[in-house]
Amino acid sequence: xxxxxxxxxxxxxxxxxxxxxxxxxxxxxxxxxxxxxxxxxxxxxxxxxxxxxxxxxxxxxxxxxxxxxxxxxxxxxxxxxxxxxxxxxxxxxxxxxxxxxxxxxxxxxxxxxxxxxxxxxxxxxxxxxxxxxxxxxxxxxxxxxxxxxxxxxxxxxxxxxxxxxxxxxxxxxxxxxxxxxxxxxxxxxxxxxxxxxxxxxxxxxxxxxxxxxxxxxxxxxxxxxxxxxxxxxxxxxxxxxxxxxxxxxxxxxxxxxxxxxxxxxxxxxxxxxxxxxxxxxxxxxxxxxxxxxxxxxxxxxxxxxxxxxxxxxxxxxxxxxxxxxxxxxxxxxxxxxxxxxxxxxxxxxxxxxxxxxxxxxxxxxxxxxxxxxxxxxxxxxxxxxxxxxxxxxxxxxxxxxxxxxxxxxxxxxxxxxxxxxxxxxxxxxxxxxxxxxxxxxxxxxxxxxxxxxxxxxx
Length: 458
Known about the structure:
Elements lengths: L12 H98 L10 H59 L23 H107 L11 H63 L27 H41 L7
Helix pairs in contact: 1-2, 1-3, 1-4, 2-3, 3-4, 3-5
């Protein structure tokens, strides 16, 4: 029916129908392809968005973790820097205390080498303590520059880490803002220009840089801990060793102080004994002088009797028993006088020896007392203890009271010697006078007794 000729003319409806069917099939296919492409694009977009957000979250997590690590490291470096500065101040305090110890306790109170060149174990112990304190002061002064350099290094590392933390905070802000971008507006810079794209650094380089900062911070932290332990060890060594040196010096001081006190008491006892002997010799010397004077008086009496008997008449001038007795008595008295004079000289010499011994005892006591007072003041100033009592010297029996530990007074020996000399001079003057007066009579008597015989002997 359709194949008949119509009023429109001859047309191929079947061809149009076939063309239309082909076009319809292509349209359907194209629509299906477009929908499939849109669906695939949507699926790919969703997948890419998921992968992007997952990578972004991982990136944010990495940056946040590194920021937390570096912030914690920054806190630890801050504490380490403060600890090193505390150690720096502590070392300065130690240096000041060492200087005070050297100036006040060692140089002024302990007085190293006070008895030089007469030094002993005490002086050596004090000198060792003094030298140890000086060496420790120099050692701690040498530690200050290295400690300051290490503080500067830690501060520099800390500044680098703080700068990196600030950059990471900015990166976190950018990354978090990147996840919130939903519109496609183009971002422009402050001046309306588009910033040039910077080539992003590789993740490995970024991680290496973060790891290098972490390693530098940990190294600085480790060095600060080691330095702090060394400083504490040095201070502990100083405290223990200085205490040991001080204990050794104190023990030596106390030992020498007690020994010298015992020696001083022994010297004082020897002085008392010598003073008793000296006083006994003084009494004996006075008694000897008295005996010599009495003997001389008796000699004068005997000589006066002989002189009186020489005035007898020629016929009665005979050598009788009375003359013999008188001459024997005179010879005995002169012999006794000579013995007493010899004894007097011996007593004087012995008294001089005792006086010299007393002088040496006083000098030794003065030296011992000086050392005792020096050690007593040293112990008092070193330990803050009150000064102990010092043995008092015995009273000087030879003269006025002497100063403690000083040499004995020279006033009394001069007086004693002057009295001895006066007595000797008086005895000599009496002898000379008697010798001058009795010289002719004695000559006459000796002549009459020996040369001229009595007239009635025959």
